[in-house]
Design goal:
By secondary structure, this protein is α/β, with parallel strands linked by helices. Helix content is 51%, strand content 6%.
Length: 367
């Protein structure tokens, strides 16, 4: 991490606030030994008990990427659960992601339901966000994924949601300036879409952060559980295991299961805004002993993908969004803005995040 995070601070040892947070907050509360396994199985027993008589006792959102794939394996084989897999197709799947999901479904004998987002609405919202000129270009996809998951679970009365979120590969969370906006903010979506959209969002799923944090959690009793935080989870070992067991194939880098996210993180964000999310991704692996700092610095010094490949992707993204290459280039060259230029409820979200940290419910560092 460096000063491309404008609010980063370093102490006299050269440690940044992310490092201090890892050693002071995360590491002392990260139980991946026998005590973690005991807690994992206690949670498994609780979920299984409450799921008696139901078709499924929990639901897992799966993308075909490493974290959700390995969490699926742990839920089925280690915890002995009967999960339903939900895949949300927002129009940007790579074939590799689709293949990985199919291999897990077949190999584990798990049911899969695919929710397909209305493409005209998805496309219109993504173009609206591009025209808004903010850094947070993956919010439409993220909102679709998580909102569809929560709505499906509510509709089918599935109480437990398991996710691949974890400390091992995500303990250093990118700052909001890099597109790390926390929470599903319907106010932000509505304002951006009202200014730049042209197609009504009649079916696009949105579960506002306040609805989820209050209604879904306390009225409906929905619980989100992160099994990967209670086991020894090492990225390369998990990739090798899934490949050997299921024929699953690893990606070149995190989030490459989505063609849009890959383009956004490897081209749009670094070239337009100067932000490299790989800094946060590699920092997580450094802190958890899975990557050497020198190797991370060497890798960050060069693009993850070739310039020729990224220019081809630029054309593909433009055409898929019904834009000409010239139109997308014009947006790319436009004046950068931030979410602060639009109506939002970030102050409320920040209060909620601070409350969760004070209560010990969130250990990661948010800024």
């Amino acid at each position: 991490m460096d000063t491309s995070d404008p609010n980063i601070t370093f102490d006299e040892k050269g440690w940044c606030d992310y490092c201090r947070n890892f050693h002071e907050e995360i590491l002392p509360n990260w139980y991946k030994d026998e005590s973690g396994e005991r807690e994992l199985m206690l949670v498994a027993d609780k979920i299984k008990k409450e799921g008696i008589g139901k078709d499924f006792d929990c639901i897992i959102g799966i993308s075909g990427g490493l974290d959700s794939s390995y969490a699926t394996y742990i839920a089925k084989e280690k915890m002995g659960l009967r999960p339903l897999l939900l895949h949300v197709d927002a129009g940007w799947n790579t074939q590799q992601a689709v293949s990985n999901i199919e291999k897990l479904v077949d190999g584990l004998g798990i049911d899969l339901y695919t929710e397909v987002i209305n493409w005209e609405e998805m496309k219109d919202l993504q173009v609206s966000f591009l025209k808004s000129q903010i850094a947070d270009q993956d919010l439409p996809q993220d909102y679709a994924f998580f909102s569809a998951l929560y709505k499906f679970a509510r509709k089918n009365k599935i109480k437990y949601v398991l996710t691949g979120s974890n400390y091992s590969t995500e303990c250093c969370r990118e700052p909001e300036e890099w597109g790390g906006y926390t929470g599903i903010d319907k106010t932000l979506v509505d304002d951006i879409h009202s200014k730049y959209g042209s197609h009504p969002l009649k079916t696009f799923p949105i579960v506002d952060v306040l609805a989820y944090k209050i209604y879904y959690k306390y009225i409906l009793g929905m619980e989100v559980f992160k099994p990967l935080n209670l086991i020894p989870y090492v990225k390369e070992e998990a990739e090798e295991f899934l490949e050997k067991r299921f024929g699953w194939r690893k990606f070149q880098h995190k989030h490459h299961e989505s063609r849009f996210t890959r383009f956004y993180e490897d081209y749009w964000l670094p070239k337009k805004f100067g932000y490299q999310k790989r800094r946060a991704h590699f920092s997580s692996l450094i802190l958890t002993g899975q990557m050497k700092r020198e190797d991370a610095i060497e890798r960050i010094s060069r693009p993850e993908l070739s310039e020729q490949f990224l220019r081809q992707e630029f054309e593909y993204i433009a055409h898929k969004l019904d834009l000409t290459v010239t139109e997308l280039q014009s947006i790319f060259e436009g004046r950068n803005r931030t979410y602060r230029d639009y109506k939002n409820k970030k102050s409320i979200i920040n209060l909620g995040t601070k409350a969760m940290r004070l209560l010990g419910l969130e250990k990661r560092f948010f800024r």
